[in-house]
């Protein structure tokens, strides 16, 4: 059993048990600040901070291939990554 993000790999039987919203934080003066909703595509090219790369779960369609990372402090439990949605 595992919790997955979409898209689900072929060959797995799945059942949706919940949906969760994602949130983004940014400076008040950012051009996207103040919007009620921010589509993930609007974040293209924006730098972001995340948990360690192997645990960064907020990705376009669940695919990490759309993000680049500079993880200088990645550790077993905690990490500090600066990423960019590409």
UniProtKB/TrEMBL annotation:
InterPro entries xref list: LysR_subst-bd (IPR005119)
Superkingdom of the organism of origin: Bacteria
Domain LysR substrate-binding: 8-49
Pfam families registered for this protein in UniProt: LysR_substrate
Protein name (database record): LysR substrate-binding domain-containing protein
Originating species: Planotetraspora thailandica
């Amino acid at each position: 059993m595992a919790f997955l993000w979409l898209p689900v790999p072929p060959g797995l039987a799945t059942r949706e048990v919940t949906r969760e919203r994602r949130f983004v934080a940014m400076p008040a003066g950012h051009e996207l600040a103040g919007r009620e909703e921010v589509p993930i595509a609007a974040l293209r090219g924006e730098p972001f901070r995340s948990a360690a790369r192997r645990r960064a779960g907020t990705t376009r369609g669940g695919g990490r291939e759309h993000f680049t990372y500079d993880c200088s402090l990645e550790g077993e439990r905690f990490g500090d990554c600066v990423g960019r949605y590409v």
